[in-house]
C-alpha cells in the first residue's frame, strides 16, 4: 500500500502535503518523500522510515513552492533507503512525434539523446507519439518534440486544459483568479472551450466538405436517372425483336436473362472506365481529404454498386414488359 497527496494552489505546498500524508499513515509504509516545484525547478526531498524523518530532512534543507506531490510507500526494490524512496526525479526527457522519429530512419529513437540548444543540454527520448495537425488541417504534420515545462531550457508559452461543468464564461473568471492568486504577473488570455477551437479550425474545411457532398450527391442522382433512362430506352426499342424470338419459340425467361447479361456487360465496362478516370483525377481532391485516401475503396465500391444496381433494374422492367406482351402485338408495334 502507499499514500499519494498532491497540491496546487496559492498556499505553501509542503505543510499541506505533509499533513495529507499523515492522514494516510494507516496504510503503512517504510519511506516517504515529496517533490515541489521551486523557482521553476523540481526540488525533491526523501527519507527512509516514518514521516518524522522526512520532516527532519525538510528542517535541514527546506523547500518552498505552490505545486507539489508527496508519496509514502513500502520498498519493493531492495531495503528501505533514501535512494529507494519515492518520488524519483528523472533526468531531462522528451517525447517525439512520428514525423520527428523519421529522422532516426530504421533505428528506434527511444533511448537516444537529442539537444535543441546546440548541445548545451541533452534530453533522452522516452517515447514516440502520434502526429498532430497543430497549425492547420491543410498542412502536413510537422516534426515536434514534447518536453516537461519544468525542464525547458528556454521560456515557452504554456496552455492549461481545465475540465469544467456549468457556464464557461463564469469559469473563465475563476481560472484567471486562481492563476493570479499564484502569480499576478502571469497573463491569462485566449480562454476558449474545446468546442470553440474545433469550430474555429473546422469551419472552412467543413463548409468545403458539405458543398462537395451536395454537388457529388446531385451528380450521382443525375447520373443514376440518366443511366436508368438510357438502359430502359435501349431495351424498349427491342420490343419487335423480342416478338420475333417469342414467335419462334424462345422462352421469356431466357430473353430476360440475355438482356440482363448484355446490360451488365455494358455497365461493367463503363464502371471500369469510370473507376480508372476517377483514380487518375483523384489527386485533385487530396487537399480536401483528411485521413482518407482519394481512392477510398469503400467509396468506389458503394458508387459502383449503386450504378450497377440501377442499370440492372432499368433493364429488367422493360425486358419483362416486352416479353410478356403477345408476339403478334409486338410485331405490329413497329
Tally of DSSP helical segments: 9
Oligomer: single chain
- The percent range for helix content is 40-55%
Q: Mean pLDDT, rounded to whole units?
A: 79
- Major sheet: order of its strands? 1-4-2-3
| Run of helices and strands | EHEEHEEHEEEHHHHHH
Distance between the termini: 95 Å
**Unreliable spans:** none
Approximate strand percentage: 5-15%
- How many E-type strands? 8
Helix- and strand-based class? alpha+beta
Largest sheet: 4 strands, antiparallel
Q: What global shape is seen?
A: elongated
How many independent structural domains? 4
Q: Nearest-angstrom radius of gyration?
A: 36 Å
Give an overview of the whole structure.
The chain is an alpha+beta fold and 334 residues long. It is built from 9 helices and 8 strands. It has helices at residues 13-23, 51-60, 98-101, 168-182, 194-236, 239-247, 252-281, 297-324, 327-332; strands spanning 2-8, 31-38, 41-48, 67-73, 93-97, 113-114, 123-129, 145-146. Strand 6 and strand 7 (123-129) form a beta hairpin. The mean pLDDT is 79.
Amino acid at each position: 500500500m502507499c499514500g499519494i497527496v498532491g497540491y496546487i494552489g496559492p498556499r505553501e505546498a509542503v505543510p499541506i502535503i505533509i499533513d495529507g500524508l499523515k492522514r494516510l499513515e494507516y496504510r503503512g509504509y517504510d519511506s516517504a518523500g515529496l517533490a515541489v516545484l521551486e523557482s521553476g525547478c523540481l526540488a525533491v526531498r526523501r527519507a527512509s522510515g516514518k514521516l518524522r524523518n522526512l520532516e527532519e530532512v525538510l528542517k535541514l534543507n527546506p523547500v518552498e513552492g505552490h505545486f507539489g506531490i508527496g508519496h509514502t510507500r513500502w520498498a519493493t526494490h531492495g531495503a528501505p533507503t533514501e535512494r529507494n524512496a519515492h518520488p524519483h526525479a528523472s533526468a531531462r526527457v522528451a517525447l517525439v512525434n512520428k514525423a520527428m522519429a523519421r529522422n532516426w530512419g530504421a533505428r528506434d529513437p527511444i533511448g537516444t539523446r537529442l539537444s535543441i540548444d546546440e548541445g548545451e543540454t541533452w534530453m533522452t527520448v522516452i517515447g514516440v507519439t502520434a502526429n498532430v495537425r497543430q497549425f492547420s488541417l491543410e498542412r502536413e504534420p510537422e516534426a515536434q518534440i514534447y518536453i516537461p515545462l519544468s525542464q525547458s531550457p528556454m521560456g515557452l508559452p504554456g496552455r492549461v486544459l481545465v475540465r469544467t461543468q456549468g457556464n464557461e464564461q463564469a469559469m473563465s473568471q475563476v481560472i484567471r483568479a486562481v492563476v493570479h492568486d499564484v502569480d499576478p504577473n502571469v497573463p491569462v488570455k485566449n480562454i476558449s472551450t474545446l468546442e470553440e477551437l474545433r469550430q474555429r479550425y473546422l469551419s472552412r474545411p467543413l463548409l468545403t466538405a458539405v458543398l462537395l457532398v451536395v454537388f457529388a450527391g446531385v451528380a450521382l442522382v443525375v447520373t443514376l436517372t440518366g443511366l436508368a433512362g438510357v438502359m430502359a430506352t435501349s431495351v424498349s426499342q427491342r420490343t419487335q425483336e423480342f416478338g420475333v424470338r417469342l414467335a419462334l419459340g424462345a422462352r421469356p425467361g431466357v430473353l430476360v436473362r440475355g438482356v440482363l447479361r448484355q446490360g451488365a456487360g455494358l455497365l461493367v465496362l463503363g464502371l471500369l472506365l469510370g473507376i480508372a478516370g476517377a483514380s487518375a483525377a483523384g489527386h485533385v481532391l487530396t487537399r480536401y481529404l483528411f485521413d482518407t485516401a482519394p481512392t477510398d475503396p469503400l467509396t468506389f465500391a458503394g458508387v459502383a454498386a449503386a450504378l450497377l444496381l440501377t442499370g440492372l433494374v432499368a433493364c429488367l422492367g422493360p425486358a419483362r414488359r416486352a416479353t410478356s406482351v403477345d408476339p403478334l402485338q409486338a410485331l405490329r408495334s413497329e
